[in-house]
Structure formats: C-alpha cells, structure tokens
Design brief:
alpha/beta, Rossmann fold, two-stranded antiparallel ribbon, 9 strands, about 20% strand, globular
C-alpha cells in the first residue's frame, strides 16, 4: 500500500518550494550570481519542486522503518517518505509555508505525521541544543550556502549511531562538495552509495568522530603535504637561481 503511494508521489512531483527558500523575505534583485533567467525565476516566487530523485527516494524508503530514528534538514518529498515508513523523524526547516504545503498534500494522500516532529527553526540554531542520540539516518538537504551543510553535518555526526547513514544531497554545490571530499578520506566514514554524483550516502564506521586532532585527518594532512612539497620545490628553485 505505502509503495503505491510512493509511486504516486514520485510521478506527481508535488510543488512545495517557492522562490528562494534559503533566505527570509523576498529575494533581493541583483544580489544573485546566477544567470539572469534563473534569477528571474526565483524573483517570480512561483511554486516548484526541488524534491529528491527517484533513486534516493527508494533508498530512503528501503532503509527506513518504524523502528528508525531519523532527522533531516530541509523538507519536501523526503519528508513524505519518512512519514510513510513511520520512522521517528525530526524535520528542521524555518520555512513555514513549505510545511503547510507538505501537510496539505499528505492529507490528500492519507499520510499521517504521528511520528514526525516539525521544527520551524534554522538548523544552526536548533541542532546545537538537540540532545537526542542513536540516529539511524540523517539527510542533509537544508540551506546550501557555505558553511551550512558542514554545520548540519557537524552537529548531527556524533548523534548518528555507528553503522548509521548520512545522506548529502546536491553534491554539485561546492559547499557540499567540500564535505563529501572530506568524508571520502576520513577514516570514520565509509562511502556507501552514490547517485549520479548528485546525492551521496556515507555509513558511519566509528562510534565517535569528535575525539580527533587536525593531524589525524587525512583530508588536512594530504593537502598540507602537497603544499609543503610545492613550497620545497619553489624554495629550492629560488636558492638555485640566487646562487647563479
């Protein structure tokens, strides 16, 4: 039954998002670095669907159940899937009209939110105070401006249980690309699945990620080594030129 509803959701691609969802108030003209047509589309403030792709929707559907503890930053089609599977779910978005639209659509599909808690706050304000642990899955798809994806990751990683999953969406945006690249090299994480290089899933393979020093992180040390190697070559070259 729920799988039929999932198919309907993915076929219909309901429009919950309106204009620019990452800022409060109207989108300021001339402030975006997007091309003009894209900027105009945001300024018009029309409803659209920024929902997840079919493949990641099915991944969440298959990996979550009524015993799961889950959390997401941002809201949309994914929120409906967590509700369908009746996971104990936290949704964090300050966008109240978005939540109203999601709830209206869910009512039409007879999807209930009995196990869902909607938090209408900015994630960087809520997550530092959020005390619950043993999360099974975290979906990071809220604000994409730098450094918000990294902040969302930082405040949820140690709340995720060992063996749990973190999903990063919109990896093509560089604020998320940086996070993906760090996690690919970090020994606390295992790359589990990638969807078209747009959405990526990591599995946590350590109990904690916070008891660490900078020199224990391959992402930092690898880049420091490359920089030092380059500096050594330049210094040697300068020494050679100065001696002749």
């Amino acid at each position: 039954m729920t799988h039929n509803i999932l198919r309907q959701i993915l076929d219909e691609r309901p429009k919950f998002h309106r204009g620019e969802t990452e800022i409060r108030g109207r989108f300021p003209i001339g402030k975006s670095l997007l091309n003009r047509p894209e900027e105009i589309r945001l300024i018009k403030n029309t409803y659209t669907c920024y929902g997840i792709d079919k493949e990641i929707a099915n991944f969440i559907y298959n990996y979550v159940n009524s015993e799961s503890n889950t959390l997401e930053t941002g809201a949309g089609i994914s929120t409906l899937i967590f509700a369908l599977k009746m996971s104990k779910h936290i949704v964090i978005t300050p966008n109240k009209p978005e939540i109203i639209a999601i709830k209206k659509y869910a009512k039409q599909k007879k999807i209930n939110f009995d196990n869902t808690t909607f938090v209408t706050e900015e994630s960087n304000k809520f997550l530092p105070q959020y005390k619950a642990r043993n999360l099974d899955l975290v979906f990071i798809d809220g604000k994409h401006a730098f450094p918000w994806p990294i902040v969302d990751w930082f405040y949820t990683s140690d709340k995720l249980k060992k063996g749990g999953y973190i999903i990063l969406d919109d990896v093509q945006i560089y604020s998320v690309t940086i996070l993906r690249d760090f996690m690919k090299e970090d020994p606390h994480w295992e790359l589990f699945k990638s969807f078209k290089d747009k959405t990526i899933v990591f599995r946590k393979i350590s109990s904690s990620i916070s008891n660490v020093a900078w020199h224990m992180q391959p992402y930092l040390m690898n880049r420091l080594a490359k920089k030092s190697f380059k500096e050594n070559i330049l210094n040697n070259l300068r020494g050679f030129l100065n001696s002749h």
